Amino acid sequence: MESLADSLTRRWAQPAPMAQAGFYYAPNNPGDDRAMCFTCNVCLVCWEATDEPWSEHERHSPTCPFVKGEYTQNVPLSVTHATSPAQVHSETSK
Known about the structure:
Layout: H1 4-8, H2 15-20, E1 23-25, E2 35-37, E3 43-44, H3 53-60
Antiparallel strand pairs: 1-2, 2-3
Protein name: Baculoviral IAP repeat-containing protein 6-like
Keywords: Metal-binding, Zinc
Organism: Priapulus caudatus
């Protein structure tokens, strides 16, 4: 049985670091560790316990716009409807 310490060292298995690196879980079969980037569609498998999502993304897809910090139409985690400025919508007369 895997210990809690072992499971905590597997950053690739944690949703937050994976999402922050642009990955989403995309298994072909139950138990797969297949993850894909939402921007460049790089597909990474066979993650090791010491792998860091950002490092792996940069290494396997250095030209990915998300990795390079370019505009990707992704909404940063810090922006929500509550933090967005209000917009005024004008009514048109009928």
